[in-house]
Amino acid sequence: MDHTSEEPAPEDAVIETVHEKLIRRTCEWCGKEISPRAKGRGRKRRYCSPAHRQRAYELRTARERQERDQEAGLARRDDDPVREVVERTVVRTRVVHSPAQSPGLSTGGLYGSAPWEPEPDAPGADPRPRELQRILVRTAAAIAQGRMSVREVERLMRGVDAVRSAGDRFYDQLGKRH
């Protein structure tokens, strides 16, 4: 660039002319060195690529929009805290076992062994049919009154099916049906 004084120079005055030439410049986005334009014509380059010029534009306009929204009360100020609302749900599951049953209604498994099973150290004896009938009648009453869970009834029915199958085989061996 040339600068020349515009005042008329007296005869003994010194005229000074200044020339500037851009030697080196860096990108305003990434800091990478940019080569100056040939012959120094046109605007000075500020960015090394169109992508960096676009990024700088987006950042600049976003800041302007944010400031405008903050002034209008539509955006949070930089010094305002960020608030969070958190919903917490706690699920507690309470497992309730059905109350302990009287020895006559014991089904084995969860509540111990069946009443007709002998003690491990006692001599084994088969349960008497009258005892089993009494237990089965009491069990039927407990089921009818809703004092047993679905799992307990299913377990009992598997036992009843086993007894029925054994009875069927017994009658088949005798050659007559009940």
Give the topology.
Blueprint: E1 25-26, E2 33-34, H1 50-72, H2 129-144, H3 150-174
Antiparallel strand pairs: 1-2
Strand content: under 5%
* Rg for CA atoms: 49 Å
Main sheet specs: 2 strands, antiparallel
Order of helices and strands: EEHHH
What tags apply to this protein structure?
178 residues, mainly alpha, 3 helices
Written overview of the protein:
The protein is mostly helical and 178 residues long. Among the domains are: 25-72, no CATH class; 103-174, no CATH class. The protein is built from 3 helices and 2 strands. Strands 1-2 form a two-stranded antiparallel ribbon. The radius of gyration is 49 Å and the shape is rod-shaped. The protein starts with 24 loop residues before the first strand and ends with a helix. Mean pLDDT is 78; it is low at 102-113.
Briefly say what this structure is.
With 178 residues, the protein is an all-alpha fold.
